[in-house]
């Protein structure tokens, strides 16, 4: 399964949408996760169609910041188990997977307290995982100053 995760920093910019479409047609991902779309669902849906995806889950931005989009192709089945402004937690099935795999898509908040709450949510999710699990996205965390 191919995944594409991108902090696009605003899907409303024509060059961004063009580059995304090009990446989707070249790389042929089964799943696309976009962070910081800064666009509401209607606009995101229009770009999704241009990129050749059938299915979606969109988290609208708050004001002019944030916004998440998850797109997937028909060859996989995605169930949304939890969604918030910073997290989309899913179970994913495909012909090549014998059991569901869990994927948690994360866009970590910039604010330290909000980030702490986001990680608490991820810990709660982890309590229920008993099989393969992938967390990906932009965590907005600094692991080292070196």
TrEMBL record:
Residues 5-142 form the Endonuclease/exonuclease/phosphatase domain. GO terms for molecular function: catalytic activity. It holds the Pfam family Exo_endo_phos. PANTHER family: ENDONUCLEASE_EXONUCLEASE_PHOSPHATASE DOMAIN-CONTAINING PROTEIN (PTHR35218:SF9), RNASE H DOMAIN-CONTAINING PROTEIN (PTHR35218). This is Endonuclease/exonuclease/phosphatase domain-containing protein. It comes from Acacia crassicarpa (northern wattle). The lineage of its organism: Eukaryota, Viridiplantae, Streptophyta, Embryophyta, Tracheophyta.
């Amino acid at each position: 399964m191919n995944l594409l995760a991108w902090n696009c920093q605003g899907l409303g910019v024509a060059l961004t949408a063009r580059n995304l479409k090009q990446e989707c047609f070249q790389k042929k991902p089964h799943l696309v996760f976009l962070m910081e779309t800064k666009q509401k669902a209607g606009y995101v849906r229009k770009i999704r169609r241009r990129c050749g995806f059938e299915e979606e889950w969109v988290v609208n931005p708050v004001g002019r910041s944030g916004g998440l989009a998850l797109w997937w192709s028909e060859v996989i089945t995605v169930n949304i188990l939890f969604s918030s402004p910073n997290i989309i937690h899913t179970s994913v099935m495909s012909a090549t997977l014998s059991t569901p795999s869990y994927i948690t898509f994360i866009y970590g908040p910039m604010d330290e307290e909000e980030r702490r709450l986001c990680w608490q949510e991820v810990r709660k999710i982890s309590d229920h995982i008993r099989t393969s699990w992938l967390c990906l996205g932009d965590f907005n965390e600094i692991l080292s100053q070196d």
